[in-house]
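Handout, page 2. Input:
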Amino acid sequence: MNANEIGKRLGIGVRVAGRIAQQRAEEATKQPGAVPGSSTPTSRIVPSAADIRQAQQKTHKYTRAAGRGVGGFLRPFGRVGGILWLEVTGFFFGLFALFFAQDLWRARSGYASGPLHQRFWIALALTAVFAYLSISAFWRAKRK
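Output:
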């Protein structure tokens, strides 16, 4: 089964589930004393607060079930997406660490004193911070 077939089947399933939920919601809100086929407001009975509350509870039950179903379907994608996000951010933090490591290498002669003294220590701190962020992102991705 390819991705297009999965998408088609998922779309059909969502549409069918939507129609079923809509029909059930309409059934739940039907009024017991209404005359079928009549559109005049005098033929309808005003629903009580208990009838409205009961209809809302039924609708809420179906909505909650649909939400759990969609959540269960998306959970694996969320896990993979989280791992991918950690790996991408770790990669970019690693690029920044390499950039600052190059500056650190250029300023290595001034680590004790000299015109590049301050630049060396700033480059060292930034290299350490970004290297830590890169390593920790990959570590967290591995643990997930």
